[in-house]
Structure formats: structure tokens, C-alpha cells
Protein: Heme exporter protein C
Amino acid sequence: MVTTFFELALSCYFTAAILGIVQLAVGSSAISRVMKAMIALGFVLHTVNVFLRYIVAGQMPIASMHEAVSFLTWSIVLIFFIIEIRYEVSLLGSFVMPGVFVLMLSSSVLPRQIKPIDPTFQSYWLWIHTTLAFLGDAAFAVACGIGVMYLVQERFVKSKKLGGLFRRLPSLQILDDINYRLLTVGFPLLTLAIITGAIWAEGVWGTFWRWDPKEVWSLITWLFYAMVLHVRIHSGWHGKKSAILSVIGFAAVLFTFFGVNLLLKSLHEF
Structure:
């Protein structure tokens, strides 16, 4: 039953991703409505899957890479809906859902067995630390999508090709403002995730920092986004530069999330 809801959510996200790509070429309001309906249905099914895994395991469903990637994907769709409702960003789903589907697909090929979390890590800090980290990463993911939208729109402006897709994309100013707002949400969440992780580590290992590869790369990611916000606020790096940095920053997030576990030895399961 748990797997069934996951597979159904994956199918909905796949359909939404395909419709999003078609929407870029066609620009049909009907396709847009169906795409959003599929995203909403997929999110509901995905939420049921996450909840059922919590019920079965009796713990937050992030004990494996499958669960962690799935929860990250769920968080991204949540942030997507918040931005969609707050700003009504035209075509945002077309730029976010292909990435959502790829993440969900990667989760589907990972081992899905439900396993208990090491008793050492069973603490209320688990909920606090990981929720902050996942939501922060999700905000950076949507900022990346907004950044790509900005770069596409900026290319249209420079080439003076002002028809079709250009008219359906939000203005450069709107995209830049949303990108900034997402960064100012993601950065405090990541900051709090690192702080709560350090407090949790001190309780478990007696030290706030162990120079674990996941900790190091989380710090590198934090420093990068701190730099992005600094140069934006104090050096006027708006627009294209900020969009490019948002894309690079999320690449760092993905390496921290996947690369460390695949290439380096870490105490973190995810």
C-alpha cells in the first residue's frame, strides 16, 4: 500500500513534467490547468505515502536515501505551491516539475525497505534539524527554477525575440524579486538547520562539530549562499548574476545531498 501511493505520485509528477514541457511550446491554458491538477494530485498522494511510512516505521520517514530524497521532493512541491499561490508565477511548473520528477525517479530506484533509525539519533532534534534542512534545500531548488526562468527570459530580451514564450513568462523584475525572497527564506532555514544539527551532535557525541564530510559541505553551501546574499545586497549583483548563482548554489546542495553519500564516507545516512 505504501509503495502504491509512491508509484501513483511518481506517475502524476511524470505527467505534470511532460505537460509542463508541452506547455512551454504550446501555451495552452487548458494544459496549464491539467498540469497543476496533476501536481496537486501527486502532492496529495505523495503526502499519504510519507504519512503511511511514518505510521509503519513509527519515526520520521528519512531513515534511508530513498525516504530522504522522497521527502526532499515533497518539500520542493510544497514550496512550489506556496510560491504559485502567493505570486501566481506563470510557467513555474514547467521549470520545476522536470527536476521534481528526476528526483522522485532517483528515489524510486533506491532501496525502499523501511528500517529503524539508529537509537543514538532518535531525538526530537531529528524532526527539528531535518525539517529545517529539507525546507531550506527546497527553497533553494525553487530559486534555481526561478533562476533558469530568468536566464531564459533575459536571453529573449537580449535577442529582441519578444513573442511566444517571452510574453508568457513573468517579467525579469518579478523573477528577480521572487528569487531574492526564496534565498532569504532558504538561507535562514539552512542556518538554523546547521545550528540545531550542532546542538544535536553535542548531545550525541559530546562535540558540536566533527568535520564529517556532510557537515563540511553543508558549511560550504552555507558560505556560498551567504556570499550570494552579501554581493546582492552590498554589491548590487541582481538579475542575471543572482540567477546564475542560484543555479550554482543548488548544484552545491545536490552534491551535499547525493555526492557526499556516494563519494565520501559520512556518518549521515542522508
